[in-house]
Write a structure and sequence with these properties.
Distance between the termini: 29 Å
Radius of gyration: 28 Å
Helix content: 55-70%
Number of strands: 10
Number of helices: 29
Shape: globular
Structural class: alpha/beta
Largest sheet: 8 strands, parallel, barrel
Strand content: 5-15%
Length: 668
């Protein structure tokens, strides 16, 4: 490291310590204001003793009354929150300085991509899709009220200070610290899945505001510099969630909970989209007299105005010669109608509201094409392109929900249906795995329904079947992007996948004869035993003509999820990582043999002990050929705040994942 680097690091460290002291002093003033000087004196005494005499500190704490001890714990907890957010702010500053000096990570990756095979690079870019998947976690239960205040503290810390502003900024900081002290950090009741969903939505809303647009705009520009155009219909970055869909071991996630979370996500997703469209309306003042418009735009605008009597006559009069702004007004009204349709539970009306995101994007593309053809290319490929890519990334649903259920739940329901028919000489539960695999593969090919509706099953079986019915209803009401994958945990053989596929067929989600499959079935390989059998499981699936047909209907893509946390618990960190590495290579070979593109879903924990670690390095370390531009990675609840609370860090983490996926796919 150069002496200049040494100087920068020293300066940064001293500034970080100064800011932590600044917040620590303000917290001390809060403790005096809120609880009296005695609490601050006790805090300082405990701090001093823990450094000098651990036994004396332990003795002091043993003799502290419960109420005082609780306040003491809260004081240290608040201090650590403030220290953490200060450290995040300074990390963001360091990243900004590095970006200014060396360029962003995407720019550095684009420089490397110039050495890639051009056709292979174009294919990688066409398939590029990075999807962080947010999960709930009991250790990340901080309330949004606390997160909002910490975010405000971070913004105030990041505000340049001069002496005339210091008093005002310190007052704002002190106000927020007082409010943090008076706010319950955790809810007094156990959070429900909807509460966990609101926490995830908090971060998704914030990402929608800026970080994702920045990353996608930079990605488009850097790829063009590397000689590759990012196709308009590519979605390089999307988001997923397990919250409200992960049923494995969580009895609180009922079909109704899944539905409620989807409604909640759409409320926020549509509101976020409305904000972006309102911004566009402000920009699109282009007059048809000076700029012109395509016939396609004018025709679509006329059709919209006929279908949307809600559009105020005032807009029709004032914007009569501003077709772009009037079209944006119609798009806004369709979004409002979509929100009202979902709230009322009424049917989709074509041309009056949106069923999924594709129709919204199509409307915006009409505007974009007209602008390009009438000297508005700079805006069309700048601000408007950024808006389109951001809306495509989040959709109206904000995040695509994965549904997960334990393999045994499917067999429990199917056992009742098969035993009721009486066609086999033994009970379903007694069948060896190989026999059951053949039975289910045969049933998947069949056109018959296994049971009447409602199916004659017990309460657990009814809940399992209810999930598939909820998925079907969700796709009909919200559109095709709302749920794409059905994940089977503790998947040990092909029969576990066939079982879920048969139940999906029963619910009307898959019809091989009619030629559609509305969801994909995803095996989750969690233990070292299952990882060792990964290629056998995939071979048994793809060698079956019916299942291969299902994969073909899903775009010839088979997703497989790899469990890092459980495999670490079963085999230890080193064994787990090695078996996951070997499993990926074997899965790659099987998929290539059957002409299938493999999409790997990495269920990485947040901490190293749960299979976590640096995402960028982990992606670059994937075996050759296992990444073809697509990757899904869980973002565990306990580290989401660390990655996404501060805008600069959120942008950096997204860039890290996208850049690593590009590099590993195109240059490995």
């Amino acid at each position: 490291m150069s002496s200049a680097d040494d100087q920068t690091t020293t300066t940064t460290s001293s500034e970080l310590r100064a800011d932590i002291r600044r917040l620590g002093d303000l917290l001390g003033e809060t403790l005096v204001r809120q609880e009296g000087p005695e609490l601050l004196e006790l805090v300082e005494k405990v701090r001093r003793l823990t450094r000098e005499d651990g036994e004396a500190a332990a003795e002091l704490l043993r003799g502290t009354e419960l109420e005082t001890a609780a306040k003491l714990v809260r004081a240290f907890s608040t201090y650590f929150h403030l220290a953490n957010v200060t450290e995040q702010v300074h990390r963001g500053r360091e990243l900004g300085a590095k970006r200014a000096a060396e360029g962003g990570l995407l720019a550095r990756t684009a420089d490397r991509l110039k050495d890639a095979d051009p056709e292979h690079l174009r294919e990688t870019v066409r398939n590029l899709n990075v999807r962080p998947v947010f999960t709930a976690h009991p250790t990340e239960a901080a309330r949004r009220s606390v997160l909002n205040k910490l975010r405000r503290i971070a913004a105030l810390l990041d505000t340049p200070v001069n002496e005339s502003d210091r008093r005002r900024l310190d007052t704002r900081l002190a106000e927020n610290i007082d409010l943090v002290w008076q706010t319950d950090e955790l809810r007094v009741v156990r959070p429900e899945p909807a509460d966990e969903a609101r926490n995830a939505i908090y971060y998704l809303d914030e990402l929608h505001l800026g970080a994702v647009g920045d990353v996608l705009e930079d990605l488009t520009a850097e790829l063009e510099r590397a000689g590759v155009k990012l196709p308009d219909d590519t979605r390089p970055l999307t988001f997923g969630t397990w919250i409200g869909g992960d049923r494995d071991g969580n009895p609180n996630v009922t079909p109704q909970v899944t539905w409620d979370v989807l409604i909640l996500q759409h409320e926020h997703g549509i509101n976020d989209a409305l904000e972006m469209i309102d911004e566009l309306r402000g920009f699109l003042s282009n007059s048809i007299r000076y700029a012109g418009a395509t016939e396609e735009l004018l025709t679509s605008l006329q059709a919209d105005l006929e279908r949307l009597p809600e559009i105020s006559p005032r807009y029709k009069r004032l914007n009569a010669e501003e077709p772009y702004r009037l079209k944006a007004t119609c798009i806004r009204q369709k979004l409002e109608n979509t929100k009202q349709r979902l709230a009322r539970g009424t049917a989709h009306e074509e041309g009056r509201d949106y069923l999924g995101t594709a129709e919204l994007i199509d409307d915006l593309r009409i505007v974009q094409t007209s602008l390009r053809e009438h000297r508005g290319g700079l805006f069309a490929d700048g601000r408007l392109a950024r808006t389109i890519r951001t809306l495509a990334a989040f959709g109206l649903q904000l995040a695509t929900m994965d549904v997960r259920e334990h393999a045994d739940a499917h067999h429990h329901a199917l056992g009742q249906l098969f035993d009721r028919l009486g066609e086999e000489s033994w009970r379903y539960a007694d069948m060896p795995r190989e026999y059951r695999t053949k039975l289910l593969a045969k049933e998947l090919r069949s056109r018959r329904p296994l049971a009447p509706s409602p199916a004659p099953v017990d309460a657990p079986g009814e809940k399992t079947l209810g999930v598939f019915q909820t998925v079907r209803r969700a796709l009909e009401v919200f559109g095709p992007e709302v749920i794409e994958s059905y994940i089977i945990s503790m998947c040990q053989g092909a029969d576990d996948v066939f079982a879920a596929a048969v139940l999906a067929r029963e619910a009307g989600l898959i019809d091989l004869h009619a030629g559609w499959a509305k969801i994909g079935i995803v095996p989750l390989l969690e233990t070292t035993y299952e990882l060792k059998a990964a290629d056998t499981i995939l071979e048994d699936l793809l060698s079956d003509p019916s299942y291969r047909r299902l994969v073909a209907l899903r775009g010839d893509v088979q997703e497989v999820m790899l469990g890092y946390s459980d495999s670490s618990k079963f085999g230890g960190i080193t064994t787990s990582q090695w078996e996951i590495h070997r499993a990926q290579r074997r899965l790659r070979d099987v998929a290539h043999r059957y002409g299938v593109r493999l999409r790997l879903f990495h269920g990485r924990g947040g901490t190293v002990g749960r299979g976590g670690g640096p995402t960028h390095d982990a992606i670059l370390a994937q075996p050759w050929g296992t990444l073809e531009g697509e990757i899904k990675v869980t973002e565990q609840g306990e580290v989401i705040s660390d990655k996404y609370l501060i805008p600069a860090l959120a942008r950096e983490n997204l860039e890290l994942t996208v850049a690593a996926t590009l590099q590993a796919s195109a240059l490995h």
